[in-house]
Amino acid sequence: MASALLFALLSAALLASTAMTRVEARAFFVFGDSLVDAGNNNYLATTARADAPPYGIDYPGRRATGRFSNGFNIPDLISQSIGQSESPLPYLSPSMSGSKLLIGANFASAGVGILNDTGVQFVNIIRIGQQLQYFQQYQSRVSQIIGPAEAQRLVNQALVLITLGGNDFVNNYYLVPYSARSRQYTLQNYVPFIISEYRKVLKRLHGLGARKVLVTGTGPLGCVPAELAQHSRNGECSAELQRAAGLFNPQLTQMLLSLNSELGGDIFVAANTQLTHYDFINNPQAFGFVTSKVACCGQGRYNGIGLCTPLSNLCPNRDVYAFWDPFHPSERANRIIVQQILTGDLSYMNPMNLSTILAMDSQT
Fold it and tell me: How far apart are CA 29 and CA 34, in angstroms?
């Protein structure tokens, strides 16, 4: 009887210490669109999916996981950089339970934007308001495992990544000529409008406990193969979409700095992914790419027409292409982006890079 009681007590202590050890590792939460989706859309009735080959051709096991990449995407590479043993699972994954919850969660969904009317053509996607509701639900689930105080600590100390904005132009304002939003707003008025809506999203994220948030700007929207295929005569970027990105990104940075000032701390960090993209778009050879105009997987001009499918043209060496498909960077390009997130100077990361955040946290 005594030995049985001792065994039960030892087992309980071991379980408790395991839970505490898991929580000691930094959790990671991801919100946003297809640039950071890890496969949530696989569980939804939507056309915005990447769950078939050749997606994932360079991912471990050569599996199409729902990532819009040939291999690892930006959250995967950040996870590796902060020492996580695995990336957070898509929140809708049936495997998302127990100790897997303590790693964090990926709530991102391809096709979404800042605005609820962005990506309506994709029908069932997890709009940003719903992603935040899932984050709230996640916290309740984790509280049941480790208790409310420890759950709050896990969230407060976690790293958060949010990537939104590109679809509000590509799959909303410029989706069709004379779109509803383009009739409602000039571009100069549309950008401050979506920035003000984004501010509301970020304040709600802060209200839910996020304290270390990387916010990526849009890439150079007019330079992706999909836009070159439709609008370019000789490989030049689409001037109108470049103008949109050029207005959005500086206003995003200013909004984040203002929000930090209001909240009294460096909560939000602006990641200038447009500048990082420009580096290898303007000089691909310097980064080991043979092209920054042609997608590895696709068809038509610049391989920029339609979707990446098993019937598409497919390059033999993904490492020498900056773009994997008509819209999304290759894994190798993602590595360059994440390296700038980690070590970039103030022109890339404002007010500080991720390495600085991690170093500061290790001293507290």
Answer: 15
Active-site residue, from 69, 168, 328, 330: 328
Please report the pLDDT score of residue 21 as a whole number.
31
Peptide bond into 54 cis (omega under 30): yes
Q: Which two tokens stand for residue 85?
A: 């043993």
The one-character DSSP state at 170 is: I
Catalytic: 69? no
d(CA 94, CA 54): 24
Inter-residue contact 32 to 112 (CB < 8 Å): yes
According to DSSP, the residues that pair with 268 across neighbouring strands are: 213
| Catalytic residue flag (residue 328) | yes
Give the tens place of pLDDT for each residue, 167-215.
999 999 999 999 999 999 999 999 999 999 999 999 999 999 999 999 9
Q: What pTM was estimated for this model as a whole?
A: 0.92
Residue 284 DSSP class: G
Residues β-bridged to residue 106: 30, 90
Residue 325 among the catalytic residues: yes
Please identify which of the residues 33, 34, 69, 330 carries the catalytic annotation: 34
Short-list 267, 279, 273, CA closest to 351: 267
Count Cβ atoms within 10 A of the Cβ of residue 14 and give its class: 0-12 exposed, 13-18 middle, 19 or more buried.
exposed
